[in-house]
Design brief:
Blueprint lengths: L2 H17 L6 H6 L6 H7 L1 H9 L5 H4 L28 E4 L6 E9 L3 E3 L2 E7 L5 E8 L10 H9 L21 E3 L4 E6 L2 E7 L4 H8 L2 E6 L2 E6 L5 E7 L5 E3 L3 E8 L4 E8 L5 H4 L1 E2 L6 E3 L7 E6 L2 E9 L4 H9 L1 E4 L1 H6 L4 H4 L5 E7 L2 E8 L2 E8 L4 E5 L15 E2 L1 E2 L5 E8 L2 E2 L10 E7 L2 E7 L7 E4 L1 E2 L10 E5 L6
Parallel strand pairs: 24-32
Antiparallel strand pairs: 1-19, 2-13, 3-12, 4-5, 4-11, 5-8, 6-7, 7-8, 9-10, 13-14, 14-18, 15-16, 16-17, 17-18, 20-21, 21-22, 22-23, 25-26, 26-29, 27-31, 28-29, 30-32
Helix pairs in contact: 1-4
């Protein structure tokens, strides 16, 4: 399985087994995809990162949900007049013409939701060459943070990277425990019960530390704010004081594209509810209204389109910036009816792709499909009920991604089942954790394929697996499945 998806899924497992003995509700899981930009999603919202990967959002959907009101004006509550929680984003776009070899393989939309976010501020060097974003949120009661950035990275991805862990005597006292996280390109510290992240646009630790040395913390009511020393080389360009309030996202419409090589690109569209990417991002050279968010990876480009932000992101295969830009430039406005009518039918697209594996579990036949950028699973029950679904991460040898989490596969009779891989040596959980569900596993090379038939078709399913995985724990020792998404 590709490293990014594998890391994100392992993150989901660790979080779920540590903090969530009960199955999350559908609303709980959907509400996770609401309030964070891509650079910080990996370290602060591991559930978000995993869900985004599995839903083929690639964390793009979270990118544009910034806090705040009018740029530069502090606010105690966000402006939510244009947002209806539970309503869909009224902005629909389709490509007028796709680049050669590309096709749309999946389209989803997510309703506006209410989430929580702390305070943030944007800084810029006086010569305009570098921007930096500071965000901080209260540390929840009982929540602990690793002592070093390396430990934080290890706890979330299962692999470590070089990190600056030795105390820096030049740091001011409020950031004495600051550590650099190379995975996210951010400097992290704790201050007055808050976890703080500073992300410079150039991705350099030295830049982040130079800004910290010029910060002066203070209190404005309940808010912790960071001002600048006199004569600083930096200026503050925006501040959003939302700590303690709710942030409402405007919902998102997304499209997943694939080419014949299997490369995947995702476009996510949402309405700006706070700081715009043109305020905080770095312009893409030679391209009008295209930006890269602060601290983001090279394969993420955002277009500022009136009051919308349109994000193009690639997380599987080699997709060039030129191709991402071409996808963004190809979009044209359509009606909701036209957009819904254009959605690919997985019962046709997935079923028509090459079958790479077949499994018999309980009274169901499961076929894994993989062809080019099409990846999914079809299920046929012995009584004739059947259905297919896109499932990101099906390997050419038929290995399925861990259900960590996964969306259920809808069947023609209105029920659903879930499938995924578990490690050899593991077995399905038993009652009462099985919650009345039926589960079975069959060998599949280096892993096992597991099928779950949930007892409660309206609720999410989650249970820790039993046994000892071959090769040791990986963080994928739980099976989580959500009911299929429905939006019409």
């Amino acid at each position: 399985m590709n490293d990014l998806l594998d890391d994100q899924l392992r993150t989901m497992m660790r979080t779920a087994t540590a903090d969530a003995p009960e199955a999350p509700t559908v609303d709980d899981l959907r509400a996770l995809v609401v309030v964070h930009d891509e650079p910080t999603a990996d370290r602060r919202r591991p559930l978000l990162a995993a869900a985004a990967a599995v839903l083929a959002l690639g964390a793009v959907g979270a990118l544009v949900f910034w806090p705040g009101d009018d740029a530069g004006e502090p606010a105690d509550t966000p402006d939510t007049t244009a947002v209806v929680p539970g309503g869909y984003l009224d902005a629909y776009y389709l490509p007028a013409e796709l680049p050669d070899g590309w096709q749309i393989v999946q389209m989803d939309r997510y309703p506006g939701t209410v989430g929580y976010l702390g305070d943030s501020a944007v800084f810029e060097t006086r010569d305009g060459s570098v921007r930096a974003l500071i965000e901080h949120t209260p540390v929840s009661t009982g929540e602990s943070f690793p002592a070093t950035a390396e430990a934080a990275l290890e706890s979330q991805t299962g692999s470590s990277a070089p990190a600056s862990t030795a105390p820096d005597p030049s740091m001011p006292p409020f950031a004495a425990d600051s550590t650099w996280d190379p995975f996210s390109g951010s400097l992290n510290w704790h201050h007055e019960g808050r976890q703080v992240w500073l992300t410079p646009s150039d991705g350099q630790e030295a830049t982040a530390r130079s800004l910290v040395r010029e910060l002066v913390p203070s209190r404005v009511g309940i808010h912790l704010v960071y001002d600048l020393v006199g004569g600083s080389d930096w200026v503050q360009t925006a501040e959003y004081l939302l700590d303690g309030g709710s942030v409402v996202s405007a919902g998102e419409n997304s499209m997943q594209f694939a080419d014949e090589t299997g490369a995947i690109a995702v476009i996510g569209i949402t309405r700006t509810t706070g700081a715009r990417v043109d305020e905080t991002g770095t312009p893409v050279p030679g391209e009008e209204d295209l930006y890269r968010p602060v601290g983001s990876r090279p394969n993420l480009v955002v277009r500022s389109l009136d009051d919308l932000q349109v994000s193009a992101f690639s997380f599987i295969g080699s997709v060039s910036t030129t191709e991402l830009v071409a996808l963004l430039r190809s979009l044209t406005s359509v009606t909701e009816e036209e957009w819904l009518a254009a959605r690919p039918d997985p019962n046709e697209l997935v079923a028509g792709a090459t079958v790479v594996a077949t499994f018999e579990l309980l009274d169901h036949t499961v076929t894994a499909h993989r062809e080019g950028g099409i990846s999914g699973v079809c299920v046929a029950r012995s009584d004739g009920a059947s259905g297919c679904a896109f499932l990101l991460g099906v390997e050419p040898d038929g290995e399925l991604p861990p259900a960590a989490p996964t969306n259920g596969i809808p069947l023609s009779d209105g029920t659903w089942v879930a499938v995924g891989s578990i490690a050899n040596g593991l077995e399905p959980c038993e009652e009462p954790l099985l919650q009345g569900a039926r589960a079975a596993v069959v060998p599949n090379g280096d892993v096992q394929t597991m099928l779950v038939i949930p007892a409660d078709q309206d609720a999410s399913f989650a249970c820790p697996l039993t046994g000892t995985p071959e090769g040791g724990p990986t963080g994928a020792e739980v099976f989580i499945a959500n009911p299929p998404l429905t939006d019409d």
